[in-house]
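Q: How would the structure tokens look for this protein?
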Amino acid sequence: MMGGITWLALQPKEPVYQGRRLSGWLTDAWDGRDADTKRIAIDAIRKIGTNALPPLISMMQTRDSPLKLKIIRLAGKQTFFKYQVEQADLHLRAAYGCSILQAEAKPAIPALMELLPVYTLTVADYLVSIGPDGVLALVGSLTNTQPDVRWNVATSLAGIGIQRLSTNATPEQNAIADQEAMIAVPALIKLLKDKNDSVREQAAFSLGCFSSEAEIVIPALIAVLQDPNNSSTGSSSAAGAAEGLGKLHYQAEDAVPALLTALKNPSPKLQRAAADALKTIDPEAAAKAGVK
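A: Here is the predicted structure in token form.
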């Protein structure tokens, strides 16, 4: 019991804003009952700023030490001091808190990377929200041995390109997105050679979101489309490349010959993806090819 109390006493002290502790604001931001409650909580966490990082990092690291978790459980059983924690929920709330702080959360990147293999897609999105430093750390995980981790990271990186297309983005946000794209696009192009077909497919699709990097994206996707290994009946990689090219619209005019060839491929999935891409890139060429 004394060990549990000692451990709890040594935890980073929670900062207070407008008479409420960080954990209270974090709860409202995570599962606020209405938009106003959530907005006010997010603003409060941003006002707390970097003072929130020590407790947030501590929350994310609760899984690192089995002894620590045992002490928490023991502390919860005794009657003198009440302490309750839901581990997974605590991790994700804290990670979400870091995403609210955006660039100020750079010191939390190592803790977020520890959570990445467990909560990949969610934490990947939070790392992207931190900015170029978060993206740089994230692309390092594309060498992870688990295909689902690589797939989820490739999916999350697409959000960078989508953000760049937002009409509501400020010039500053666009400049940051351009920096992130310069990190993400080469990593995704490299992922087109991944040994897992589903990972290659997602990498190709995600690349189609980066219109600002079309000069290097389009040749890479055409190469995937023309690779016999990717266009075999049992593969989805070429279909992902066709879908990615379609997202680039008229910028991908150089891909029309390869897409016309793909229409004759025996794979129904590739045929559909190529037809849809042609309709968005060159409607006239699609009509001449009999695409409806």
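The radius of gyration is 23 Å.

Confidence is low (pLDDT under 50) at residues 5-10, 78-85.

Upvote if useful.
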